[in-house]
Structures are given as structure tokens and as C-alpha cells.
Amino acid sequence: MGRSRESKGAILEELKDSLAGSQLAMVIDYQGLTVAEISALRGKLRPTGTICKVTKNTLMRLAIGDDQEWKPMTELLSGTSAFLLVKDDIGGAFKAYQEFKKESKKTEFRGGVMQGQLLTEDQIKSIADLPPKEVLLAQAAGAINTIATKLARSINEVPSSVARGVNEVPASLGRVVQAIASKEAA
Q1: Stretch (H or E) spanning 51
Q2: How far apart are CA 16 and CA 8, in angstroms?
């Protein structure tokens, strides 16, 4: 006997909430995996803030609805699908899945969706290889700090240059007067 309409509604709401809190969704074919293997995958993903949802494609299609951010995922909905919904650590989640895939040799990566874009495995790998957000923020702050320091040095150099120029005027004037006097004497 199938699920009741109420339980499907609850599952649908849970899927919508999970999608709303995710920044990336990866779709894999889990055919051939045992319950223990799926549990192992979930265990590997949990520390990265990723949840693994195994649900019918029709329920996921309903959860996506008209949401343009997730609409491209409908192209990946066929066969036995598991959905890896990444909330925080894209790099960690992708690496955890790759490690699981290497160990089990049973899953197939279909694709991913991020910000309304359908992504291939290579594209997600490129995103996963980026430094963590904290490192990128530190690099940006360092670059801004460098610019501010150089600007401060340049601004401090202006009065010094003006002062050197003002100090040079009397000496130059003295040399000019001596040159004129020497010319008149000659």
C-alpha cells in the first residue's frame, strides 16, 4: 500500500524546505546501493552540512514547482535518484561523495544545479576546488588593506614632497643670483 496523501504532503513540504536552505543540489543514480551503503553516504555527508534525500522523481518535480533556481534539475529526474542537498560546504560535500563513489563503485553522478544553472561533474569539481569562503574573505580583506596602506603612504608623501620643493626654492634662487652675478662680473 502506498503513502497517504497527508504523508506525501509532509514529504513535499520537507523537500521544499530542504531546497530552500540549499545552495547546491547534486543528483546521483543510487541503483544497486544497499540501505547500509546509503546510510554510509549520509554519514560521510553529514559533517559537511549536506543531506541525502532518496525520494521519487515525481515528488521532487512537485517540490521544485516553478522555482527557477531549481527548475533545471527536472532534466536530471529519471531512474533511481538520490538528491544531495548542500547547505554549506560544497567542496567537502563533493569530496565526500567522490570518496564514497570510489569506494562503492555503484553510483553515477547525473549533474547538479546551483543558482538556476545545470552543472556537470567537472564544473562542480571546479567549484569544490575553490578555497573556503573564510580564506577568500581573508584574501579580499588583505587586498583591500594593501590598497589602503599604499594610498596612505602616497597621501603622506604629498606634504613631504611639497616641503622638499619649498626648501629647494631658496637654494635654487641663491644659485640663480650667483649665476647672474658671475655673468655680469665676466
Answers
A1: strand 50-54
A2: 12
